[in-house]
Amino acid sequence: MQLVRNWLDKISLERIQLELMNTVYGSGHASLSRLDPRVMLIWYLFFGIVPWFIHNGTVLLGMFFMMVTTTILSRAAPFIIIILCLGLVGQVGWMFIISLFFGGNLESAMPLLLLTLKLSIVSLASITVFSGMDPERIGDGLLALGMPAAFSFSMSYAYRILPVLFGEYRNIMLSYRLRGQVPSRPGWLYWRFAVYYMRLLMVSFFPLMLATAKRSRTTVEALETRGFSYGMKHPASTRLKLAHLKITVRDIAFLSGSAIYVGMLFWLGGQINIL
């Protein structure tokens, strides 16, 4: 019981909100945040698509170790890593159980291991880019690569507004807890508390949608007051916004090092296939 209580204290809403705030607003100190966002997005495009077409275990394992290194350099929040691990274990685990139920054996674990490596590479690449860079720089990188201004701004805005919405959600849940009644007995493994909090999570969504709609209207009015629509339609405004972007020697070295490493992995994979 004490172990369950300790885990519940670690995954409190306050802790999750702090982790999200650190991810969104504390990414400027990461090593990869000094790279040009266009370079990082092109790098992510490669590692987000190519692993799905690779079936060599040596190449995938090498890419996985590379993604672990870049994730460490991006200083991703531990909360995001835990969610990633739980998602991978849960998704691959139930697929393995289903394969055993339909007549499979331990040999079916090998294809699932390759699938896990692919999912891990793509997921860690996403964490590297979106945790190691400021949301505004990500939006500028998308805009510089030719994406529509509305889409680029939406990505940046959604990334920044996530901790705010989570804080709003937390306040709604606290209001329900003040007006509600906690179960008198916790039950075995605190199952009564689990049911109580699951119910709070579900009933808090509708007030959150109303608060989000109200906040969205206020945001649109503030943006239009500052000439957002006017700025999106004029190339001069876009050039002024993207004037700070510049590809340096550090960016070229990062792409060259990644290309050389991947090339060595393909050569090594042609010689040895570990999985």
Please write out the topology.
Elements: H1 2-10, H2 13-25, H3 37-49, H4 57-74, H5 78-101, H6 109-132, H7 135-144, H8 149-179, H9 191-203, H10 205-225, H11 228-232, H12 235-241, H13 249-271
Helix pairs in contact: 2-8, 3-6, 3-7, 4-6, 4-13, 5-6, 7-8, 8-10
Q: Can you offer a commentary on this structure?
A:
The chain is an all-alpha fold. The protein is 77% helix and 0% strand. It contains 13 helices and no strands. The protein has helices at 2-10, 13-25, 37-49, 57-74, 78-101, 109-132, 135-144, 149-179, 191-203, 205-225, 228-232, 235-241, 249-271. It is flat and about 65 Å long.
* Tally of separate helices: 13
**What is the share of helical residues?**
over 70%
Q: How many beta strands in the DSSP annotation?
A: 0
**Shape by Cα distribution:** flat
Mean pLDDT: 81
Strand percentage lies at under 5%
Distance between the termini: 41 Å
What structural category arises from helix and sheet content?
mainly alpha
Provide the low-confidence segments as ranges: none
Order of helices and strands: HHHHHHHHHHHHH
- Major sheet characteristics: none
Radius of gyration, taken over Cα atoms and rounded to an integer in Å: 23 Å
Features:
single chain; 275 residues; mainly alpha; flat
Quick synopsis:
It is built from 13 helices and no strands.
